């Protein structure tokens, strides 16, 4: 059977025209049993390719095109596990050295377990023969033979180009002289001949939009040909060697099941010690319930060898806390007693949070512990992580694919349209619209009724072909991989920030079972940190992380809906829901946050909940046994954890099985698959002694709820920060406003909205050369606007003014200011225009 061994997918960015999934479907349709993917300089699409190939019963072969310094390439194919590790290390060594080309010395270092093809028409040997340099070509092939020995295959091609047969014949003769076999390839770049135009457009985008010196392929023959088509253009003797290569490949990309770097030698003992040390601090007294819960959680963590995950996060969190960096845990991890003992936050026992939503016997994927840090200081944490785990850490990448607007813009420019015309073509196109959805949008959206795209059939057709194609990789918002064996498993390159970046994206990392940690930034932590520092400067003491969650002033503020600046509760919609719900306790706050989500709002879940809460509607349970599960939410399903408990109760199964069942409903399922789940659920309910009515009613609720249910642990994590921010606004409003103003845009509103809100309660003083600093400051029980609020006045200019003022005293006149502080005319005019010199000589600044 023939196999294409040299294939460039869309992960040869803006050159290849198809995704790995499309490649596999086409290979299957052509009746082939194996195929390779060999993208330029990386394994970007490898995981997606392997997943698609395994599903289709196609043997996946991994490799890359390795560009050399003279513009030629080699094709390197993974033969076995050692070869995969060596290829990953070769890519990493090249990319982290900021090189786009591979050196033969590095290739020699990492050659074991790799098969080498000579690159066909893009290879050095081919180019040397075309230039009449047969001796040099033989010497180069001999060099490769010394490195790869029997794993070197000379690569020929025939694209019906004039010199192809002649050069291929000479390559075959040289192959015999050095004792190597010859394979034939087609350097596949598009799936069908008619897709050549897509390749040309992509290359044109590189030329016109990205200004790269690159040429398109010379003809339309570089498509995925059938075995019969290839047998018409290649000599029969190359087919045996192709089969030999396929047989040699013995590598299966499976879940690596690896663990993060070891922080402590005896990780289970260390985790146990940390938990019990904090147990007496968090719980007074330590009850039997707490001890049993801790024992259950630790036993599961130990049985899964997950101790090191918790200890890595503990190491990073401890380092940050020792440096005063504010942080919190989010997500389902908040439901764990172990995470509470290690990191604090809401008490999972007090708030009835489920550990099984985080980890259970039915889940084998690594723990997902997400940490939010003070945004302004997150980079300090990131630098520590990469220093602490040097050689074992990398950012997770994210994949950028074309959206309709960007695709229309790039294709139109590639077709030579001027910028004004491009702007008209993209006007009113929805941001999230996919390229292949434009025709449908033109029919349905009234704002596109007059769009010139109606007359651009060819442009829209070409744009549609870019749907789903990757453009580039970039750095994921907060994901970091940490692993002892990282370099053997993941090809890396350099991120814009200078740290290693995985060529695999978030989905790939999860499929491989690699340890991923999300270290995110949260601006509210920045604002709270600054607020606490201002409170301390004013001689007041506050331990915000140990305040009671039943403060009447805080709930009075929340019920008043004066929540601009309060975490999660400041938008008009949230404040409207607050006024209806009237939260009186922390549980109400969790529910408020959970209900204000697209799914629950669309389903209008808030209305029956609020009516029941305020006694305007009876609380009913279609099954009395469900009352303990739904009582806290007045019979309304609000949390994912309630689904777990309902499923477990009605089917007489474990929470572990219930979680597996819940997650199976949340994935994209066909109607047929959902029907199978429904039948299984109802059958289990009936076997457990419940009526068909109860089973059908329960299925209707949980199946509808599965797509938008909110994790209760996550709600508790956010509600905790919400409560803290509301507490600060209720008790320390001036410091809180200042904290918000000096943290950029923290939530829904920019600083000027916060300032107008503050003006209702406190005097606000305008920028002034004798009083202002760069940031906003507290002055005379009011707020002095800082130079940061003045367009054109940067931190350096403000520092120059403040430094001179502190060294030589207040400015007494404008001429004196100009003599002491050297500023440009433009900056002086700005300061003069805003009144920053008003009152010089009388020590006063006007109230704004």
From TrEMBL:
GO terms for biological process: DNA replication. It comes from Thermodesulforhabdus norvegica. It comes from the Bacteria. Its EC number is 2.7.7.7. It catalyses: DNA(n) + a 2'-deoxyribonucleoside 5'-triphosphate = DNA(n+1) + diphosphate. Keywords: DNA replication, DNA-directed DNA polymerase, Nucleotidyltransferase, Transferase. This is DNA-directed DNA polymerase. One of its GO terms (molecular function) is 3'-5' exonuclease activity. Residues 3-70 form the Polymerase/histidinol phosphatase N-terminal domain. Gene3D superfamilies: 1.10.150.870, Bacterial DNA polymerase III alpha subunit, thumb domain (1.10.10.1600), Metal-dependent hydrolases (3.20.20.140). SMART domains: POLIIIAc (SM00481). Pfam families: DNA_pol3_alpha (PF07733), DNA_pol3_finger (PF17657), HHH_6 (PF14579), PHP (PF02811). The lineage of its organism: Bacteria, Pseudomonadati, Thermodesulfobacteriota, Syntrophobacteria, Syntrophobacterales.
